[in-house]
Fold this protein.
Amino acid sequence: MTVARGPGGARGPYRFVPWSVPVALGLVAGVALAAPLEGWTRLAAALGLLGGAAASWRWRAGARPRVGGVFAAGWLPFLPLALLAGAVGVGRLHAWEHGPSERARRALALEWAGEEREWRGRSDGEVLHVEAPLRARLALVTPRGASPPVGELVVVGTAEPADVKRNPGGFDASAHLARRGVAGRLFVRRVDVVRAGRTAAGRLAAGVSAGLGERAAALMLAMTLGRRDDLADLRDSFGAAGMAHLLALSGLHVGVLLVAAGRLLRGLRRGRAPLLAALTVAFVLLVGPSPSVVRAATMALAAVASAAMGGGRVDAWAALGLAALVGTLGAPQMVFDLGFQLSYLAVVGMLLFIPPWTSRLAGLGVPPPGRAAPRPAAPGGSPARLLGWAATGAVASTAAQLPTVSLVAGTFQAVPLLSPLVNVVAVPVAALLVPLGFLAGLVGLVSDQAARLVNLAVAPLTSVLIGTAELGAALPALGWGEVTPVGHAAWAGFTLAVAAWSWRRLRLRRLLLVALTLAGLTSLLPPAHAAPDIWFLDVGQGDATLVRLGGGAAVLVDGGGSPFSDFDVGRRVVIPALRALGVTRLAAVIVTHADADHAEGLVPVLEKFRVGLLVTGPPDPDAALDTRLRELALARGVPVHEARRGERLLVGAASLDVVNPAPHQDHGGGNDASVAFVLRYRGEARALFLGDLGVSVEPDLAVPPVDVLKVGHHGSRGSTGPELVRAASPRLAVISVGRNGYGHPAVAVTDRLAAHGAEVITTLEHGAVRVPLAGPLTWHGTASPARRERRTPRAARAGGDVIDCSQCS
């Protein structure tokens, strides 16, 4: 935005403000305001905004605003429009929440979920557009990840609502799919193809991937068509390197394609603009209207239209505001989508920071972007040009990422510190791959062999890009936990202060003062979930419990696992949860026994985290996981301790009194060799952990009364017998269990616990369960807002051998 003359050409304190920016801001604010409101409160908000718009219009008409300086003089005239747009935003969100996609989602959850039945509809290879027994869109989930057929189908399977966020650092798949109009997931058992079909995207995909290896094909399908299902470990490495934006279709892809098409069509004078516009619309129809694609396409169409009508270069802020206006009107729910937020914030960052930063670089002799670099007339000219491009590339990458740091940190639990430099290499390579990928796809429509020839040039570039991502993933990153709304607001304030400093509106010392003030305020606020506490993580049919003891000390008990699936629970669930809860090192990791549903997820934990001590039961040479964990600990320099009854492990203010296995048990294997212990915090017995112990061993355990019982063996009928329940007298019994065919938890066990006064909860019902260790006994389920409070009983102390693990980490 630039300073301009006022109405009629008169000089005055006016600032040029594109109308689309305040209107778009008002619309987005209206949607955000409406989200937590319901019923009459939402109606009152809409009426209030309309009343405010009318009042401000009368005030504006009565006298020229004299509030503030140049900034206010430019923005205040748009106040009525912004308030009116806010009211429209309230109405648009209300309309979406009561529209067909949300009605279908509610109907699925209430009437059609959970039972296997026939579903008839049309598949595009990812989503089944169901026509019977109800009209809805369902994401297809096939056995072993097989690709669903395309065309008219009859699918036999079970529909389920998608999962909400069930663990710290987890993903809210339900909200993600709902925003895209998908009611739930359809777990497919059998497919009958009524009429086979092939979409345009499918035909292009065949050419894009022709002749490429598995990883290269997955990368190209993501970069050209937005298909990200086959990325596997590439998703992790690109995310850790700060290159995840290259996997999502964005302005980079639209820009690269339009530049390439513009050069091909530069010989045309009259038809060039319509063809470019048609190409842009076709691209959106082909890949789908994701927020970043809609933004980029709208800005591109605005630029094409402005050039075609002789308006010259379109103002970037005006185009961005127009894109936000179009995108929010069309899909107001996307305001809450991470893709929407990252896409717009990245462009805002580039518009805010690139001009002043490149100007300062120019002052240092580095050519700014878009200007011809100095010719290598003298020795050293080429290195100077290379330095200039590298510097401007790093500036552009940093500018795009700065406003998004808190979102990235809170979502991915890490900030790759050197990603701007990594992107200096990666972005140019991606800029070559995108048009080559589309060329291969178009050529593949005619000849598969010709597409393979094109991909001979694609293959080495994909190797370079994948190698860059893997190298970047190994570079230092700043670990981060979940970010609260206050944290996001503080980072937004800091970003604006940096922008003011960059435009020379704020002195450096004041910027530092702002940064220190915001950092101080956020550090004084209590975290959402303060230690000490116990987190019973939801790992499906398995066990994983995190005990946080304050001062950075933490103990992980088991890591879950998926014995009959290739889903990596440790990497996908446990590690994100640890990072989201601010855990960077583990004083001890306890593997109760080597069954896969307890031990498999610990492998990536030992690989990724600093661990002070690995506590196991007796060795079990017949269990491959037991051997693997011990070898991994040896390779990582982690001491291994075989726990025995009567020992006490000290960690901070807590002690873990081992009650199983027996001192003379030399061979592991089987549930009855599980490591079981009593967790004491500040001397009080708070929780009893049993692993998969059976009732035959339970009478041998010296169990004091505890507040919380981690029920043994997922509530199996062969565990948690009457004697143990009577001795432990728990107030809260937590069962870690998923959907299973074993009958877990057994009704006899839950009834027995309830009869002794214990409140019985499961991770299947409530997701991850948090139990604070300080204060009265309370619990909170991640997937349910319910809270319970009970008094904390006192318990006697126990004696035994002591292992001080306070310095383990």
In short: The chain has a mean pLDDT of 86. The first strand starts at residue 116 and ends at 124.
